[in-house]
Design brief:
26% helix; 796 residues; 2 domains; Glycosyl hydrolase family fold; alpha+beta; Beta-galactosidase, Chain A, domain 5; 8-stranded antiparallel β-sheet; single chain; 9-stranded antiparallel β-sheet
Length: 796
């Protein structure tokens, strides 16, 4: 045995001991401060002006039910739980971007539910509020009721503590407009003095083009005294009615149950089971998941579920605020929702009529995977895709299988899943990079041939790319794929075609080119050499919208002429600059992850590339590297939105990894460091994307390629913490865990520059290392200092 082999053996033995100790520590789920991850995650961060689907309290990771207070309705943004609002309107069970439903509101005295949500609202105070993952407690000042909320996956559980009251009511305003949704029809029926059932039929929205049904069954642990409701009469006036045959239905209806003679501090619990298939399935979900009435046990179980999810990342060191933000970021990566029942039933609304379908079942007669309700993955290659490849592969595979279910059910692989129907969020085919990442890393559990076939179909005229943002109808043309195939770019005239949004040709060209490269990698894996050659060629189409004379990506006309009066950014207040989607040329020019070396050469080499990129960051620094939502055209760097989320990491690819270390830390602290209700995500957390990026920045890992490629590699940056243990399903056996440990030595918290690195006992001088080395488990040791080591980490 040579001396170097002996050293490696010693280091590997030491590593095995470290990993055994880490495994022993995992069940305790404690950080260095002896706090559980579920105690550190803070749902209130940046809730002053958030999206309807952003806030999480009484819910499980990916749970169908997300039960929480609503302060405002009417839009997808600035809706739901809003920190600065003074009144709670209701507590509702479904908080997705385009599906919402089943509001409940307790009141005492006269029932005014028929007058709308505003009539029963209550003031509240944050001083009397407790908000955790899996639990929410708030005191309703107007009625003096204490409300407590928790949940299983498909069941919301409420516990209300009442003052002494002659009458008290639980209001179910089933036709109320919630979030961005409206209701066209509703139904409620009394089953017994302890149970009611019903549904709400949601009207189509701009993003969800077809209606959708949400069913519920509500059970009460104390028999109610009466069941009543209201409806709109012929004159359009809402009137309280006593339902005939204990049933009420119509386009404007609600129901309420009444209790009489409540004593002070008397408690009533409610269990509300949800299904998107039927009331019978809602009852099945309820009885399967929550057969008991032990509220505190559900709270405990929910905390344990979150600890199990969050503990795939365990850290020591850093500040408490940094640990809070880390676990809040992790929490947001679980904000997408399943929409299948316990028996695997889900609703397919892609055809002329809705169809109830079943997911495949395992030997235990339970579904082997889930059907996901969630926003698209536009820009996901720099956040969730990496996350779902490294740490949470089962969730990434669920997502892919959901999009493939659309392909199997209706002939086209989806790029979004809202209400069991196509939604066409944003542009391109942003599902393909996720498929390619899981295949490249050997993490895929789906059928690779079907996935490739569906993705390939989307890359030609008539596929999903041919639909601009939210463009429905039988003859889409807003994606410009005929031009892209014929000319190698999408011209600016795309603005005049189709009926969708985001019809901006230069951005489309850049995004399509990266997606083509991902298809080429998939084709290579499947030994489809001709396809690989075709898509590699198409992946170079970025060059057709890069103007070397000025060094920026620039829109072109059908004629081939460049757009005149071009500037890399436009005046403030503009949603985008011409040719670019929610961005500017200053950000989109760097959107060439598949060939950064080629872009660097086109810009004149490393030195000039670094100067241009750093100039962008210097101009954006005073604005915290973000632009206000809806004003992206003026941004030189914009970490509020997806197109530029890789920019700080690009310096490494031009031979200056120390600059990546500096700017990643600057972005992390200034754009994403906040832990109060007014900062932290900058208002546009697209169902975990910014959270996933925040985690990657905090643990010092990234990949410009999105874990796609023949030999995908991870990029090393400076972690925030002294010790990080990453726990994830093994490649060999998904039921077993593998550990990767990152250890950091530094003298001062301000030390951010990597001086030396050791990977699995071997001195490591590159800023990248193979994804396979990560997935097989091991240890990365880093030494940080106050000044750059310009010799470490160069790619060449």
């Amino acid at each position: 045995m040579t001396k170097s082999q002996h050293a490696i053996k010693i280091n590997m033995n030491r590593l095995k001991i470290l990993l055994i100790l880490s495994v022993m520590a995992v069940p305790h789920l404690r950080s260095v401060s002896q706090e559980r991850p579920s105690d550190l995650a803070n749902p209130l961060i940046d809730t002053h002006k958030s999206r309807y689907d952003y806030f999480i309290s009484a819910a499980l990771p990916f749970g169908m039910v997300s039960l929480s207070p609503d302060m405002k309705h009417g839009e997808m943004w600035n809706s739901g739980y809003l920190y600065d609002e003074k009144y709670i309107l209701n507590f509702s069970h479904v908080h997705n971007g385009q599906t919402a439903g089943i509001p409940v509101m307790p009141v005492v005295g006269e029932c005014k539910g028929y007058l709308g949500l505003e009539a029963s609202k209550s003031e509240f105070s944050h001083d009397k509020e407790v908000v955790k993952v899996g639990y929410h407690k708030v005191f309703l000042e107007d009625s003096q009721i204490t409300a407590e909320l928790t949940a299983t996956c498909r069941v919301g559980m409420h516990r209300y503590t009442f003052p002494a009251a002659d009458t008290a009511h639980f209001i179910f305003d089933l036709s109320a407009a919630l979030g961005a949704t409206k209701t066209s029809y509703a139904y409620a029926r009394k089953i017994s003095s302890n149970e009611i059932e019903g549904y709400s039929l949601l009207s189509p929205t701009f993003r969800r083009k077809k209606p959708y049904l949400i069913f519920f069954v509500a059970q009460f642990d104390k028999p109610f005294d009466s069941f009543n409701g209201w409806e709109k009469n012929k004159e359009g006036i809402r009137k309280i009615i006593r339902p005939e045959e204990n049933l009420i239905s119509g386009d404007t209806i609600g129901a309420y149950v009444t209790y009489r003679g409540l004593k002070n501090n008397e408690q009533i619990c409610i269990k509300v089971g949800i299904s998107f298939v039927s009331t019978e399935n809602a009852r099945m979900n309820l009885s399967s998941e929550l057969p008991h009435w032990n509220f505190d046990k559900v709270v405990k179980d929910a905390a344990e579920a979150w600890d199990n999810y969050l503990s795939r990342v365990l850290v020591e060191g850093g500040t408490r605020e940094q640990r809070i933000k880390l676990y809040t970021d992790l929490m947001h990566t679980a904000s997408k929702r399943i929409s299948d029942d316990v028996d695997g039933s889900y609703m397919d609304w892609t055809g002329m009529y809705p169809v109830a379908r079943k997911l495949p079942l395992g030997s235990d007669n339970k579904p082997t995977r889930h059907f996901i309700e969630g926003d698209g993955l536009w820009g996901g290659q720099w956040n969730l895709n990496i996350f779902w490849t490294l740490l949470y592969p089962e969730y990434g595979n669920w997502m892919v299988e959901t999009f493939l279910d659309y392909y199997r059910n209706a002939g086209t692989m989806a790029r979004c899943s809202w209400g069991g129907n196509y939604s066409y969020v944003m542009v391109g085919d942003h599902t393909t990079p996720l498929i390619a990442a899981l295949l490249s890393s050997k993490r895929a559990t789906f059928d690779p041939v079907s996935a490739y076939t569906g993705a390939r179909k989307n890359a030609f005229p008539g596929g999903i790319r041919d639909r601009a943002g939210y463009e429905a109808g039988p003859h889409p043309s807003g994606g410009g794929m005929d031009w892209y195939v014929e000319k190698g770019y999408v011209p600016i005239e795309i603005r005049e075609r189709g009926e969708g949004f985001h019809r901006e040709g230069a951005a489309m060209t850049l995004e399509y080119a990266y997606q083509d490269w991902c298809l080429a990698q998939m084709a290579g894996i499947l030994k489809k050499s001709e396809d690989r050659k075709l898509f590699i060629q198409r992946s170079e189409n970025w060059r057709n919208v890069f103007d070397p004379a000025i060094g920026w990506s620039r829109p072109r006309h059908v004629s081939g002429e460049w757009l005149k009066d071009f500037t890399p950014v436009v005046e403030k207040g503009k949603f985008n600059s011409p040719g670019f989607i929610e961005g500017s040329s200053a950000t989109y020019t760097f959107y060439v992850p598949q060939n950064m070396e080629g872009l660097i050469q086109e810009m004149g080499g490393n030195k000039k590339f670094i100067e241009k990129l750093e100039s962008n960051f210097l101009k954006a620094k005073d604005f915290r590297f973000i632009a206000p939502h809806g004003e992206h055209g003026s941004a030189w760097v914009d970490y509020e939105n997806q197109p530029s989320l890789a920019m700080a990491h690009l310096f490494s690819h031009a031979g200056a990894p120390w600059k990546t270390q500096y700017w990643v830390r600057e972005v992390k602290e200034k754009a994403f460091g906040g832990v109060d209700p007014y900062s932290g995500y900058n208002g546009d957390e697209d169902q975990g994307m910014l959270g996933a990026l925040g985690v990657l920045m905090a643990i010092g890992l990234f990949d410009l390629h999105g874990c796609v490629g023949e030999f995908p590699e991870l990029e090393i940056t400076s972690p925030l913490f002294d010790k990080i243990v990453l726990r994830f399903p093994s490649l060999a056996d998904p039921l077993q865990n593998t550990l990767f440990r990152i250890s950091v030595k530094k003298k001062n918290p301000a030390d951010i520059y990597i001086q030396h690195a050791i990977l699995n006992g071997i001195k490591w001088s590159r800023f990248q290392f193979p994804v396979t080395d990560f997935l097989n488990g091991g240890e990365l040791e880093l030494e940080l200092g106050p000044y750059p080591n310009k010799k470490w980490g160069k790619p060449f």
